[in-house]
Amino acid sequence: MLFYLTGLVFAMVGCSYAAVPLYRRFCQATGYGGTVQRRESVEEKIARHTQDGTVTSREIVVQFNADVADGMPWKFVPTQREVRVKPGESALAFYTAENRSATPITGVSTYNVTPMKAAVYFNKIQCFCFEEQRLLPGEQIDMPVFFYIDPEFETDPKMDGINNLILSYTFFKVSEDK
Description:
Oligomer: single chain
Largest sheet: 5 strands, mixed
CATH topology: Ctag/Cox11 (Pfam 04442)
Number of strands: 9
Number of helices: 3
Low-confidence stretches: none
Mean pLDDT: 84
Helix content: 10-25%
Number of domains: 1
Distance between the termini: 34 Å
């Protein structure tokens, strides 16, 4: 009985450590919560559209949102509220996080793109999401998000009338180091 209960404790601890990577894979596979699905790499998409000479004229406004989970003593804000980008162009945005507590805190962020049906066209080239960020007391960092909107966004009839996208991040406390 003791062996069984000890094994159960170790299995539960192992599952808790695997939760974030498994959730990320689930979201990318299903598109759950507006998470971008992955079929073709961003580099492959850019190369294909460059080779095809794809040109777009439609301007998309990408707005940025930042939240922290309850109990997370961080200030987390986008450095800019929005950027304007044409499908086929890449863009760079920044978020700023500050630990407002007296102890070091490690956090991890999740993201989503709304409207959800447009998330398939939103490709992050570089991002801080799903990576642990450790901030010392009072420490502040800038975190980049480098993204690309697939030019097929412009030709998809389901995207008619969609000219605004929202990229939203939420930071959660992973552990509190002492």
